[in-house]
């Protein structure tokens, strides 16, 4: 049987690499373009995906869901963090530090930890086996948004390298 922690680490790295590869094909003049005024741009999506790696790492390391006492304040903080990322180099740096944080958090787990579930305090729980795979899965979900934006500006190229 494969080691689920090593598999989660490998998938986090690979999915981030695929995301960054596709993001690298976003033209500079389209980085901040969005289909509507309230939609996220490719740069904002990339910032979100990269910064959430740190959030997932914290959840894995603490085996808990952070308490959010004031949702509006928390969303404002997330918005500020995402909009503070202004260019590709900052996206890449955020992804690299996020991957490192996820891998360090995964390295802190024992096989017994994978049997745990995390209580959200809001009536739902999440298994640790789901959580350790969430960084890779979340990155892939947002890759789909980048791909969609590319179709909006009529880029029909399939990027393989």
Ends apart, CA distance between termini: 31 Å
Morphology call: globular
CATH superfamily: dinb family like domain
Question: Which strand order does the major sheet show?
Answer: 1-2
For the CA atoms, what is the radius of gyration? 17 Å
If helices are DSSP runs of H or I spanning 4 or more residues, what is the number of helices?
A: 5
CATH architecture: Up-down Bundle
Return residue spans where pLDDT drops below 50 for at least 5 consecutive residues.
Answer: none
The biggest beta sheet, please?
A: 2 strands, antiparallel
Series of secondary-structure elements, N-terminal to C-terminal: HHHHEEH
Structural class, from secondary structure content? mainly alpha
Q: Could you please say which CATH topology applies here?
A: Four Helix Bundle (Hemerythrin (Met), subunit A)
Structural description of this entry:
With 161 residues, the protein is mainly α. It has helices at 4-23, 42-62, 71-83, 88-107, 128-152; strands at residues 117-119, 125-127. The protein has one domain: dinb family like domain (Four Helix Bundle (Hemerythrin (Met), subunit A)), CATH 1.20.120.450. It has 5 helices and 2 strands, in the order ααααββα. Strands 1-2 form a two-stranded antiparallel sheet. Strand 1 (117-119) and strand 2 (125-127) form a beta hairpin. It is globular, with a radius of gyration of 17 Å.
Reconstruct the topology from this structure:
Layout: H1 4-23, H2 42-62, H3 71-83, H4 88-107, E1 117-119, E2 125-127, H5 128-152
Antiparallel strand pairs: 1-2
Helix pairs in contact: 1-2, 1-4, 1-5, 2-3, 2-4, 2-5
């Amino acid at each position: 049987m494969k080691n689920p922690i090593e598999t989660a680490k490998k998938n986090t790295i690979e999915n981030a690499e695929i995301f960054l590869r596709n993001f690298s094909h976003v033209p500079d003049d389209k980085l901040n373009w969005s289909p509507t005024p309230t939609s996220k741009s490719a740069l904002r999506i990339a910032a979100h995906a990269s910064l959430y790696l740190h959030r997932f790492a914290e959840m894995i390391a603490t085996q808990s869901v952070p308490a959010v006492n004031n949702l509006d304040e928390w969303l404002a903080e997330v918005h500020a963090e995402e909009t503070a990322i202004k260019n590709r180099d900052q996206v890449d740096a955020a992804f690299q530090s996020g991957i490192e944080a996820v891998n360090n958090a995964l390295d802190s787990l024992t096989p017994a930890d994978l049997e745990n579930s995390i209580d959200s305090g809001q009536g739902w729980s999440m298994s640790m086996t789901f959580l350790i795979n969430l960084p890779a899965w979340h990155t892939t979900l947002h890759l789909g948004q980048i791909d969609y934006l590319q179709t909006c500006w009529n880029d029909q190229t399939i990027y393989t390298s």
